[in-house]
Amino acid sequence: MSSDAASGLSALSSATSSAADTPDPDDGTELIEYFTFFVFPVSGPFNDDVQVSQNWGTVIFDSNDAWSRGENPLVITVSAAPGYRLQPDQKTVWEFWDEPEVTTIPSFTLPAEVSESDARDWTPDVPEGVEVTADSGWKDDATRTITVAPKDGYAFTDGQQTEFTITVTRPDSEEEWQYSNRDPLCAADAPDGVAGWYIYTNKYRFDYEWNTEAQAWVKSLVGTLIESRLIFSGELTGEELARCSDVDDETTLIPLFTFPETHIDRDAGDSIFGDLPVGVLVASDTGFLADNTRTVTFAAAEGYKFSEGQQGTWVFTTDPLSATVPTFTLPSEIPEADAPTWAPSVPEGVTIASDSGWNSDGTRVITVSPKDGYTFTDGQQSQFTITVKKTVPLPVDPDNPTQPTTPDNSGGDTDQQSGAPTPSSTPTSSSSTEAAKVSVTTTDGDTLAKTGADSTTLAAAAGLLLALGAGLATIRRMRKA
What we know:
The protein is built from five helices and 33 strands. A four-stranded mixed beta sheet has the order 9-13-11-10. The protein is mainly beta. The longest helix has 26 residues, at 455-480. A hairpin with a 5-residue loop joins β32 and β33. The model is unreliable at 1-23, 410-453 and 470-481 (pLDDT under 50).
């Protein structure tokens, strides 16, 4: 019950007051004083005690008795007993709502691991008021996930874990020595050079795998080899001793040797061999090849033999050769006439990494890099921009088309108005006339096409034009004078 209801003021009532039919005061009924219901809290849900402030004999009430069934709301309706009447505005219907008590569950947890012997029959042990909402059962990885929630009327404390993962404790790995055959070994093959009978033993590690169906850890059938030993089990006698005597007298066992570093300096020479054991010979040595490798094969000298597992051939590597390319450059400009056939010329050891070709702005970008085995000097330019130098044609003398000319105003007659040289009236020679047949150059440098006319006709026309030019120049002078 809420605190307001518990106060006895029936603050939880949702019903509104209703007026009873009040008989005429002259009918002999007695007027009942205003009354209400009081709630007295009692431990537990739906157990609160409801009492009325009026004598039960003066009123008649009807209840739906909901609380006896653990339900809400409890409804009470009242009316006046015979011989009594209610106040005109007396409330006649009450509704009471009970708020069930909520119990807070203390913080709890579940074990992170359970033993294999307990796993098969293990169930989660949770406090009162807690419900297991999900249980995955034991999975293939030997884990089990449990999810919990509070039951009605209960609540978890803040931060209470609601999902738990339980693991079946895995047994420790087991290590076992397993014995195999027993063999006679001569001094050359025996540990520490002691001939005798030896037993081969291997040490294996066995792990455990979870069997979901059996809900148990099962030891793996195949172990992992972690160590091998030869155990001396007796001296050699008879034929075995005689056989080993012959073998041991003929050969000496060479201790195992190795090279911890196989990438070496190209100029190391035979120093790479260091202090080889006695009895080791260099059977072959390729020296460093084009692929920067050197293969050396070792052999046992007469009267010696390699130990079991000795590597006889070794491959050594070194850094590639490197030559320095002398500093070089490419031209910044080339003539227009050379552009169509021009190609960059670079020293040995240099490769053209990229070539843009001639761009629309008359430039060409060349990028270079050193080839394998070569390096550039410090500061060597690796990108060049080449520009085409445009050729500007000079004007051609009409009297001598094969020779370009430049204007010369230093002397001679000139036109008084324009300042241009005064045309000469001297006729051109036949050779210059023939040349005029080939091409004529205008004052802006453009060349006219061949006319194909007869040279005599062209010569006469040229002479006439020159004469007219001289006459016009004389007239200008006279007018100016």
